[in-house]
Amino acid sequence: MIWVVALGGAIGASMRYLAGRLAIRIGVSDFASVTLCINVLGSFLMGMAAIWLVRRGVGNAQLSLFLTTGLLGGFTTFSTFSLDLMRLIEEGRFGLAGGYASASLVLGLGAIFAGAAVARTIFT
Q1: Binding region for Na(+)
Q2: Structure pTM?
Q3: Cα dihedral across residues 44, 83, 29, 10: positive or negative
């Protein structure tokens, strides 16, 4: 089963890299903003995946591991969030650091609930 997680993780990490490059290309140059967007999108997709897997009966453990632990685990990243937050604090940008931490928590949680709600509508 580890190969399923590894494959998903490789794809998810590659998607995160490409999303970061795309964000820079369209003018989002602040590293924290890129990480926030990726993590919020990943939370939304995790909410959708969780409901979709439950509606399918979660009969396929490999699919669940591939999507959640691998793909979305590789796409989102708490360690990058922590690094971004550390950089902001070390630069003395305490207000931005607090806003970033708060926004990450509130928007991430909101996104996972929104993703679950959308999935409940789609996968009924």
Answers
A1: 73, 76
A2: 0.88
A3: negative
